[in-house]
Amino acid sequence: MSNRRKDHLGASSSEPLPVIIIGNGPSGICLSYLLSGYTPYVRPDAVHPHPLLQRKLSEAPGVSIMDQDLDYLSEGLEGRCQSPVALLFDTLLRPDTDFGGSVESILTWRQQKERAIPHLVLGRNPPGGAWHSIEGSMVTLSQGEWMGLPDLQVKDWMCKKRRGLRNSRATAGDIAHYYRDYVIRKGLSHNFVSSATVTAVEWGTPEPSSPGARDPSPLFQVSGFVAAEDQSQQPFSLRTRNVVLATGTSDSPARLGVPGEGLPFVHHDLSALEAATRAGTVSPSSDPVLIIGAGLSAADAVLYARHYGVPVIHAFRRPVDDPGLVFNQLPKMLYPEYHKVHQMMRERSILSPSPYEGYRSLPEHQLLLLKEDRQAVFRDPQGLQKVFGVALVLLLIGSHPDLSFLPGAGADLAVDPDQPLSAKRNPVDVDPFTYQSIHQEGLYAMGPLAGDNFVRFVQGGALAVASSLLRKEARKPP
Ligand SMILES: Cc1cc2nc3c(=O)[nH]c(=O)nc-3n(C[C@H](O)[C@H](O)[C@H](O)COP(=O)(O)OP(=O)(O)OC[C@H]3O[C@@H](n4cnc5c(N)ncnc54)[C@H](O)[C@@H]3O)c2cc1C
Hints:
Helix content is about 25%, strand content about 20%.
């Protein structure tokens, strides 16, 4: 950690920081870029292919997008995301990408230091967030270009690194590297503290604003620790006027709740399979790896195990032809590897006459119990019990946001506070044009936490938060 960053954490300054961002994935990085004074303007010669948007943009020539009315600009835009500001920023950055076009971004970026807002980005991993936990050889679901952040195209970065896209997609390893490099290239490193885990965020009720009061907004106390290389932990506690939750949803894997789920050979992420393959505890001659789940993470695990010749039992609750399975939503031409897994799930089912050597699928099977002697007990669709000996179990059935560092684990912040927080079904309830919590002034949420699930779309959240924070700063009395 640089001394400058140590200073930030150790500082006992009486002035609170304007902003702390928790989470250093693409959301946190993009927001840090915008808060560092990088300001988007429409290029004077650019014409957006969307006529209505072009007309609106031409009404305010020379005015930064961050200073314009995001509600007005985004009105009427449609696309693959619910958030109007996410659609707006995406269409400014990639004007016709959904129509297969490659019109360049109509934005130009100017760094205006006087607009910068001091902030810190705290994250457990190196900058890049979840991308440092995804197996490096996995290929992104999205096109490589859609993984990029403002003003540094993935293809240009790849070219400089002498790397290439695969069938227009990138590897997770390259993308993790790109994000880390982005922070360095854009001069954002001094804002980032890696290996930092936030364990508590607390706030008080704002003082009733009295005449002459400087700032009626609440003060947040953000506490946690920074892990050193020798595993020692250095605690920190910081005060700030605004907190941005950008913690993603990958840290708390969903659990099945079956007996034996806590046994040492049972894991909830793919990295356990990589470690076991490296250590030789699973191999072509070992008992099979049991992979539970019918989503893309489970499919990635199947592909990984197959690559190393490790035998696989693949179990899932749904019928293999269930239209809700994710495979049915992916075009075959673009995702041949996932369609291969789907085909194997169908053709190599235990219910079909000739199970394929080294892979067997168990559709509509419910895992009942895992035993210490590495036996997995299932109930089949007919209600009969089946037992399999396995070397390792991977339960890859999704993940939940983990806001355990907030009062009440953030449950009150969800759209439906009576239901568990969920990126897809019950995200944090935010204003669509500022991403500030509807329930707590000064608290923002972005990325999957706010329902924006793809890197392409988390960037609109950053634009909304940055523009809201800039307005707040402008309102502050000198
Ligand atoms: C296997 C997989 C494949 C994916 N493929 C694609 C794809 O192809 N295209 C695409 O667009 N999206 C893809 N995604 C989704 C993508 O990862 C997310 O949209 C994106 O990373 C969200 O960015 P984020 O910055 O909001 O959160 P994240 O990238 O999740 O980063 C948040 C970071 O915050 C850290 N954090 C959490 N809590 C704390 C705490 N208390 N203290 C400190 N740090 C904390 C987390 O450890 C994490 O490192 C994929 C996700 C997974 C899991």
